Amino acid sequence: MKFFADTAAVDDIAELNSYGLLDGxxxxxxxxxxxxxxxxxxxAEICAxxxxxxxxEVAAMDFDGMVRExxxxxxxxxxxxxxxxxxxxxxxxxxxxxxKGIRTNVTLCFSANQALLAAKAGATYVSPFIGRLDDINIxxxxxxxxxxxxxxxxxxxxxxxxxxxxxxxHVSQAALAGADVATCPAAVIKALxxxxxxxxxxxQFSADWQATGQSIx
Length: 217
Ligand code: E4P
Fold this sequence. Notes:
Blueprint: E1 2-6, H1 10-18, E2 24-26, H2 29-35, H3 39-49, E3 54-57, H4 63-74, E4 80-85, H5 88-99, E5 104-109, H6 112-120, E6 125-128, H7 130-135, H8 140-153, E7 159-162, H9 168-176, E8 181-184, H10 186-191, H11 196-212
Helix pairs in contact: 1-3, 4-5, 6-8
Erythose-4-phosphate binds near residues 6, 132 and 164.
């Protein structure tokens, strides 16, 4: 499973990248707003840091506007992926970009049928929002499993990008359900390494080693 960072915070992206844990980045208008920066500046800076795909989302609601904004965003760097909403205009724009060989991420997906439409429109990625489904008492993992089955039934090549991930449990469950990618806040990715038995074992090994008085070097 690939890990994308779901953030527009450049410091967090640089840190995750330094561990070799980052396969890409996703942003959205809320994350850009939180960064307090201009979208063009922040996307260009992220793309210079990370060689993998970087999703940048259009703000327009209509096809023509999405195409204009998407073309502008795609011009910022080779690894920009145009993020489009799961609406009829968004699907039309997805088809437009996929025919031009520009990668797309169809976002705000909350059902298997929506994901099927995104795949038919040629999306590179479709983003089912796990956490927001859980918030309304719908099991987001069921949606991921259904999408995996449908995509496999028809050999659809669109990658399932599990989004709105809130916990390590979401990450492992999405991996078990067959998601291709999980996009997560930086804190969720870093928390995946934490286990109390690792800490306890390390403290014991360290104490025992100190007692030997040895030095490896
Ligand atoms: C996906 O690409 C979105 O940016 C994101 O995962 C939304 O997550 P949220 O529900 O935590 O805002």
